[in-house]
Amino acid sequence: MHSTPDSSPRDSWGSQAGFILAAVGSAVGLGNMWRFSYVASQGGGAAFVLLYLGLVAVIGIPLMTSEFVVGRLAQVSPVKALPLLGGRKWTPLGWMFVFAGLIILSYYSVIAGWTMRYAWEAVSSGLPKDTVAYFNDAATGLPAIGWHVAFMVITIFIVAGGIRRGIERAAVILMPVMFVILAGLAVYAFFLTGSREGYAFYLNPNLGAVFDPQIIGNAAGQAFFSLSLGMGALITFASYLKGRNNLAKEATIVALADFGVAFMAGLVVFPIVFTFGLQDQIGASGLGALFVSLPAGFASMGAAGKFVGAAFFIMLFFAALTSSISLLEVVVSAIVDSFGAARRAVAITMGTIITIIGVPSALSLDFLGAADALVGNFLLILGGFFTAIFVGYSVLDKADAELAIGLPSESMRKAWAFMVRYVAPPILLGVLYLLIAPTWQAIRTLVGLGN
């Protein structure tokens, strides 16, 4: 058994179910609740869904399996695992994962704070009808900072509790409740008067759109972002595995669960949008849909809207929390493994630093959007590309032997190796190319805001 530098026993998952639910929680986030359904509606509908599933099969599941393999094989966080398995030249990639997790959490927690405020408002007094004014008040300034801090306190508390008593316990409670709420909302939305029109808009079968390079890039990007790849979270979670799990099977379960949440969210969102005539208010911005358009629909439902709105934002809060836990764990695990520090002290210290770094995002939506475009998009794809290179060309033999523990089929392992070596890297390079322009614009925006 490996141990941290201070020779204390390394924590581990208490059950296979706990690990899977935590991994699903890492993958499922706010983006599942809007971005997938919006991109699908604009990119061929049902055809996009099939394209997305194909990309998950050829990129998402092989790379997720790769991250699981690296984590379980090394039994340490990415900053230690990569040089341990592939040599010191891979150390910078591990620290890039830590940097990405730190920065993403700093602004993600601001948005998550909004979900807390909206959930509280929906439960206590109902969402206001003037949703634009309410969002403008909630999104920036002292209120946004206050809820951002509150959300980070909860995240820090859970991560400080460790794997079994903190992260696993939270995942085992939060994820099933979130699934039940989402399923209930989908059933409710089915009976709304605009459900048929909403489904038609969401799943229009435009096969021609699938051959659009931009749509292909969007589908690849969505598949990648949605699965929490390229930031070390899944390597970190798998480093706490002690059993002989079939990692390819578990990666498939996580990927399909993540897709199921994203797909069902569209079955909730679009019936509400069409029932209450909000079509003109939806757009590429997930913020506008989640925090302006949908609350307006809930407010129009009367008494039922209070309960539906409360359920929806509680679900969003749970999704945001499980993702934030994994982001903070990447940072905490790296510091604990590298320096032998106590988990609780590291969680509090790094969580506080991340909270402070997030203040600019709580003061400016432009800053938040630019940070997301730069780190949350480009850097994750870059991390995924180098992960594929690392596993496919630096440690393939070790990874194959580790994968064989739960997957004895040599033909399936060869298919996995082929995807990691020859399919994922060129596709991810193509997505990186498509992201050059928005990433450059994000850099210019951040520089402009800093001056």
Outline type = globular
Number of beta strands: 0
Helix content: over 70%
Query: What is the H/E order?
Result: HHHHHHHHHHHHHHHHHHH
> Biggest sheet, in brief?
none
Terminal Cα span: 51 Å
Strand content: under 5%
Number of domains: 1
Superfamily (CATH H level) name: Amino acid/polyamine transporter I
CATH classification, class level: Mainly Alpha
- Named CATH architecture: Up-down Bundle
Helix-and-strand structural type: mainly alpha
Give Rg in angstroms.
Answer: 21 Å
Low-confidence stretches: 1-7
Q: Whole-number average pLDDT?
A: 88
Assembly status? single chain
User: CATH topology, what is it called?
Assistant: Amino acid/polyamine transporter I
**Number of discrete helical segments:** 19
